[in-house]
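Exercise 7. Predict the joint structure of the components listed below.
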Amino acid sequence: MPRIKASRVKFWLLDINFEMRLGTPEIWLWGICNGERVLLLEREFKPYFYLVISDEPGSVLPALRSESLKTKEPVEFQSVERNFFGRPVKAIKVICSNPETMGNLAQRLSKVKGIERSLEEDIRFSTRYVIDTGVTPCSWHVANVRRADNPPRVIADEVYSLVGPPEKLDEAGFPRLRVMSFHVVPLGGSGGPQPGKDPVAVISVNNSRKGPRQFYMGDGDREVLISFIEYVKGYDPDIIVGYGVNQGIWQVLMNRAKHHGLKLAVDRASSEPHTSLYGHTSITGRAGLDLLDMAKEIPSLDVERLDNFARYLGLNVKGELMDLEETDISDLWASGDKQLVLKYAAHNAQIIAEAAESLLVLLTQFSDLVKLPLDHVVAAAVGFRVESYLMAFAHRAGELIPKRISRDYAPYAGGLVLNPKPGMHKDIAVIDFRSMYPNLMIKYNISPDTYTEEPAKDLNVAPEVGYGFRKSPDGFYKQALKSLVAARGDLATKLKGLSPRTTEYRLFEARQRAIKIITNAMYGYCGWVGARWYAKSVAEATAAWGRSVILRSIELAKSAGLEVMYGDTDSIFLRNDPVKVAKVLKAVGEEIGLEARPEKVYKKLMFTEAKKRYCGLLSTGEIDIVGLEAIRGDWAGVAKKAQKKLIEIILREEDVEKATAFVRQCVAQVLKGDVPKRDLVIWKTLTKPAEEYEVKAPHVEAAKIMKEKGWQPNVGDKIGYIVVKGDGKLYQRVRPFAFMEGFEPDYRYYAEKQVVPAAARVLSIYKVDESALLA
DNA sequence: TATAGGCACGTGGAGCCCTGTCT
DNA sequence: AGACAGGGCTCCACGTGCCT
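Solution:
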């Protein structure tokens, strides 16, 4: 018998996974402890699920026991009391031994007479562990451990066995992490990357300590892969970060490795990267991140190219390198300009490393808040982050977690939008309700578990729709929202006492941002048919209360003597009479009980006939453009730039003639063809596979051409195309912008269908129409 | 492995009417 | 005179990206 020596360690949790090992499900906690990389093993934790019973436990247990005997698995039953959607229920907690067969067991046992339903068998085992123990990714813990007896073969400085669950510490910050970025240049011959068919020309890596390295092809790519694998082993990064790597690059590397009889052993458990939740590639023991997932969340990015993303983050981007198109890279390599390709790849890897650096604080705070491992929190969409938060919250509140089920889409009425008063206005104030929906949900206790169809006293009854919600006790959503709001309030207090330059300030600031995002997503989450806690009545009632709030605010503004020029969901636009506006704000606060704030003031504001489209000159001197073509990603640069400049002239100089002349000059220039090619590119997202479209559309046809050329446009990719001269419908006259050889842009189209309509949208309020601009 | 609904607007395509031409 | 092809027009569905 080995001597058992217990000790106490403090560690920061990087990754968590589960393995069946030696016949037992084992939770693996990958931690960082005094600069060492450690693995902590938990073998005592057992998977379980619930059976909600309609009878007394005694009457169902014998049948459950005899049914469970048919399986070889040892099963333990515990009678427990829980809540389900706020209603107290009796349940049997079924503790089993194998997470992989638990689903089948749950299905069998749920058929036993007296069982209403099974619950929580669909919670992943590692998630179960996080929920039950409070152990939290990207957070510090202390644990009692001893050296593991039969440690698995892994890359770690130490492997421990846990003695009891770790205890989470209330401590901010994170250890010094080893971050490695990489960029891969796969060769595609004449076409694009057929995953793994063609060799990998270059792999560039970068890290904060060792600096850049490059591995590139000589005769073949075998050495490239071997060097890459060796490099990863040598540096042993905690985080491996790429850009767009979940969309095929990992697959390319795997296929190339297989081709050469190699194992792409880049994780800490000498296995290979594998596809995991949320369509991301998981690397055991490390956090494998794809920053494209983050870029896709940023609405102001028209096209989620790395260079755009990097510029958004304020990084120093070398334009001459980043302007290279992916489609040209393999040609460049083939044609001999290898130095340029190497520089390009190196710069990409460097930019990715810098981007990771600047995002890491926010990402760790998100991970800590919603209790998803770092790699999952990056890959998961907003709805799943909210849900993860709620699942952990539910456990603490004794609420059973509903199953994920598929439901039919069920639309409901949302926010109220007023017709704007078209024309130019001076001195307009916008007041809006901060976080209106979450605050309404708190105020009226709107929650799936407080909703009742029975007539009762003490109900909040929603306007228009008439749904009733119990005033007490606090509903599940209200509890969750209040706890988020309170946490954010605490952080605000802490932030006041800190200098913005400190590490702590950056951490707390990121954390409050994460909390704000989750708080504001809660309403959308509850109306999402895929949500575990979906409740249409909740979403519908919240929106209805929102409409009544805005309508009442308009009345209050009118009775204060202020005309309402426009309004959208939670905002109203008024003449900026400070005394009267203050009066409105006060009345709104007192009568409605929600905080409204003056959001911004326009010196000049121009509405078109349309809702959600206007532009103005702010009191700060900035131009604000809302909804118009100039800020839309699916209009050509020529049109966007012309409209932007035109708006500047109108707002700053109020010179309609000058503006008109400017547009005419733009039109003439376009017709002459005196415009850079990139300003002719129109970008549109491919939202489904090209074959599934019901109508012929330009960007879909462009995607098909790319496919013919060997490139694989993915669903979600932005397709850039140029309209070219020729006959027929528009969709017959488009080319992907990278494949323009032999085609000439249709400048007439750009003048008539892009620049002129965009300009006329603004100028039409001055009675300048399209024909006047084309003349 | 989709947070919500409201809205504008370009494009394609179906359907209708009109008109000119052929039988 | 009637049949019919084809052009022009209207209207609507589809599709996308924006706003809050």
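Discussion. The mean pLDDT of chain A is 93.
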